[in-house]
């Protein structure tokens, strides 16, 4: 059923964007339901995710399609808040934003996503988290998810941050979806980290917030947040880091078309 539905999703998305008159056609029940779902995806994503709104029409089609597939591949768990499909769609869209230039985007290592209403305790009593990633799944505070997109230029976006951890995790764990090309490109990252760390130590200044310097994993996640929220400033202040992230993620937020390599 999954792949059959996928074909139908492709067909419906294509027609919607070509503005063909779907209303004059007699649609099957399944097609009607999918058409409604896809329109909802488009409405919800365009309302919250600024990245989506500046994509070309073809890119928007791919974005919605990928979000749909990503969402279908995960089980969402709502801990302390009511189940809401909008949440699953938006969290999936955040992952799709991060991986938009990559061929493998489903983060297949992760089957479960856990949503909490607000910051939560985990392992260490007294310490509050707004998101984390573990072999059990991806965890996010919904309140902070929304804040991440409400202020789209403060270099803080917890969903992008955690998905960046998840992407690294997905590709360095030993399983079928790990991408050797991503692993090879990711070797560029320590090369950017070393000089940035040295610069930070000597000047005590960095365009990235200080949490980035906790360790190389946090440096990756914080850099990626900044890459999407303030690409020009990152490119100006830390050009090597900027180009390395473009190379790893295969997209450039400052280019007219996000990427040209993937169809
Ligand atoms: Zn982190």
Walk me through this protein's architecture:
The chain has 263 residues and is of the alpha/beta class. The chain has one domain (2-249). The chain has helices at residues 2-18, 29-48, 50-53, 57-72, 85-98, 142-150, 158-172, 180-186, 188-203, 216-229, 231-237, 239-249, and strands spanning 75-78, 112-116, 120-122, 124-129, 131-134, 137-141. The strands form two sheets. The chain has a four-stranded mixed beta sheet. A two-stranded antiparallel sheet has the order 3-4. The radius of gyration is 19 Å and the shape is globular. The protein starts with a helix and ends in a 14-residue tail after the last helix. It binds zinc ion. Zinc ion binds at residues 161, 165, 218, 221.
Structural features:
four-stranded mixed beta sheet; 12 helices; binds zinc ion; globular; alpha/beta; 263 residues
């Amino acid at each position: 059923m999954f792949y059959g539905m996928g074909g139908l999703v492709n067909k419906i998305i294509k027609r919607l964007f070509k503005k063909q008159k779907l209303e004059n056609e007699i649609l099957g029940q399944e097609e009607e339901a999918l058409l409604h779902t896809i329109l909802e995806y488009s409405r919800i994503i365009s309302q919250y995710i600024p990245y989506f709104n500046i994509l070309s029409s073809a890119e928007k089609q791919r974005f919605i399609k990928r979000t749909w597939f990503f969402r279908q591949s995960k089980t969402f768990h709502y801990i302390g808040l009511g189940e809401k499909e909008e949440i699953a769609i938006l969290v999936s869209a955040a992952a799709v934003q991060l991986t938009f230039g990559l061929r493998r985007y489903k983060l297949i290592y992760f089957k479960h996503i856990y949503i909490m209403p607000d910051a939560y305790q985990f392992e260490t009593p007294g310490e509050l988290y707004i998101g984390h990633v573990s072999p059990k799944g991806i965890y996010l505070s919904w309140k902070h998810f929304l804040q991440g997109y409400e202020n789209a230029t403060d270099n803080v976006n917890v969903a992008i941050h955690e998905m960046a951890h998840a992407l690294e995790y997905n590709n360095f764990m030993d399983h079928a979806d790990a991408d050797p090309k991503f692993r090879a490109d990711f070797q560029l990252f320590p090369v950017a980290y070393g000089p940035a760390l040295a610069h930070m130590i000597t000047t005590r200044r960095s365009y990235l917030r200080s949490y980035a310097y906790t360790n190389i994993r946090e440096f990756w996640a914080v850099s990626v947040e900044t890459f999407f929220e303030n690409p020009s400033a990152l490119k100006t202040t830390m050009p090597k880091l900027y180009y390395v992230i473009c190379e790893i993620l295969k997209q450039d937020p400052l280019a007219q078309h996000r990427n040209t390599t993937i169809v």
